[in-house]
Recover the amino acids of this structure.
């Protein structure tokens, strides 16, 4: 049976330093573009196979291609193929825990931001521009998709483009379609390539590619990746390369890659157990001192009755029980499952101790998973710095003051919230002299936008009348009533 093949060194993300030097000196051409794609091909093919395994496609999941262990001359041999989707669970749990709550994007409202932007009115205008961009692109969906694809393949691409109305838009690209040329990190591209293929209306495969630099998009088309040729170009108006990468980690490998062999072993074991149960391996029928043809054996298996013609009286038919070591099988499966969760740093939600633990205990159980998510958060923040740089270029071109260094990203894990504990912590901090804004930020995990919360509190203070105003209204009401009566008499 074919088993999972781990990534080789040749299938890691390639280095493009030499290609960057060539493009800096002479620009891009058809031959160089084809060489760039050819170097990326091993990495792209492996990443595409990972994505297909996530989709549970038959030829990409090893157990689904399993051949029967014993060939049968007649009939169909028993060959159960039980695929346990640990691969998808690892990816989905990571995505839901890290990106299940939207990242809070905001423009800082501090003295430094006012000085760097211009004045308070400019800060409000910059904050509205950023908020409109986040809402228009539904960055909650974009960030979740980027996290999911990065967890599968090791990195994802984020492309900035202009819609027909001229607004800044974002789309997420899979790793096997995205090549980032950078001398530092793929979150800061020098140049980038997007390449993909599809079918036209006649069923013919058409390859397309797009090359991005700091000013233009160059379009390519061909019958194959080796025959791509330029057919057009246009400016993108972003000031820097608008296609960046978002790596999962520095190695750019997916979350389930280290445990795929363990998942395959678990699938084989459960499939073998199912074969034993279905094949009546727990017991076998023994025919002693009697000749029985295949037809009679088949009838007895169906009806459960056995017909014996034995004039000698020495014939015997009985069941031979198979002594299965059930404890060994269960311990083996349990060991495999624990190692899958352990080495992928994914919490086992079916663990009884996990289900009965308190909030603080759960955080300790999530330490390994939180470390992995923290690494991705650092990469996403690096990508965010470059994104704000692109937005600043576009906003400044529209005469809108916008400082990319004043943009803030706040992350909240999708974790059960202990509201009572957090409220008591916030109250204790405030009583100790900590400013409310800091206390709410540090203690209340469900607060995504602290500025909005402080605005609501200020609005409530203004809406509640003071005691002096209430007393004044009580004394003024009788006088107003007497004046109304006098006017009525007149």
């Amino acid at each position: 049976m074919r088993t999972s093949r781990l990534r080789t060194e040749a299938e890691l993300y390639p280095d493009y330093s030499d290609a960057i030097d060539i493009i800096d000196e002479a620009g891009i051409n058809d031959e160089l573009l084809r060489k760039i794609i050819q170097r990326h091909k091993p990495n792209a093919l492996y990443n595409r196979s990972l994505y297909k395994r996530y989709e549970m496609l038959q030829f990409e999941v090893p157990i689904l291609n399993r051949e029967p262990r014993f060939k049968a001359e007649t009939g169909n041999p028993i060959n159960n193929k039980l695929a346990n989707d640990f691969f998808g669970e690892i990816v989905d749990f990571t995505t839901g825990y890290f990106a299940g709550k939207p990242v809070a994007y905001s423009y800082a409202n501090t003295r430094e931001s006012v000085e760097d932007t211009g004045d308070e009115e400019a800060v409000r205008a910059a904050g509205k521009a950023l908020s409109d961009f986040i809402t228009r692109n539904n960055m909650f969906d974009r960030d979740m998709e980027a996290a999911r694809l990065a967890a599968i393949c090791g990195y994802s691409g984020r492309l900035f483009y202009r819609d027909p109305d001229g607004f800044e838009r974002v789309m997420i690209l899979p790793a096997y379609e995205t090549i980032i040329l950078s001398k530092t990190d793929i979150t800061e591209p020098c140049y980038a390539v997007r390449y993909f293929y599809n079918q036209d209306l006649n069923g013919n495969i058409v390859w397309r590619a797009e090359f991005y630099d700091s000013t233009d998009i160059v379009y390519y088309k061909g019958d194959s990746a080796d025959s791509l040729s330029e057919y057009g170009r246009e400016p993108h108006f972003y000031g820097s390369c608008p296609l960046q990468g978002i790596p999962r980690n520095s190695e750019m490998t997916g979350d389930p890659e280290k445990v795929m062999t363990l998942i395959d072993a678990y699938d084989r074991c459960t499939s073998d157990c199912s074969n034993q149960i279905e094949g009546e391996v727990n017991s076998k029928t023994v025919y002693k001192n009697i000749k029985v043809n295949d037809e009679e054996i088949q009838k007895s298996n169906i009806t459960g009755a056995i017909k014996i013609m034995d004039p000698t009286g020495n014939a015997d038919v009985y069941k031979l029980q198979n002594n299965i070591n059930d404890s060994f099988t269960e311990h083996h499966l349990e060991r495999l499952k624990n190692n899958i969760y352990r080495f992928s740093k994914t919490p086992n939600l079916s663990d009884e101790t996990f289900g009965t633990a308190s909030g603080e205990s759960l955080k300790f159980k999530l330490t390994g998973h939180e470390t992995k998510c923290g690494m991705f958060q650092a990469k996403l923040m690096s990508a965010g710095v470059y994104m704000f740089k692109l937005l600043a270029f576009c906003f400044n071109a529209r005469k809108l003051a916008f400082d990319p260094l004043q943009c803030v990203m706040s992350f909240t894990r999708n974790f059960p919230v202990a509201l009572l504990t957090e409220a008591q912590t916030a109250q204790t901090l405030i009583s100790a002299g900590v400013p409310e804004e800091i206390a709410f930020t540090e203690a209340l995990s469900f607060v995504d936008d602290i500025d909005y919360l402080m605005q609501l509190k200020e609005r409530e203070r203004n809406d509640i009348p003071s005691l002096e105003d209430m007393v004044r209204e009580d004394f003024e009401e009788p006088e107003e009533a007497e004046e109304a009566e006098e006017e009525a008499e007149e």
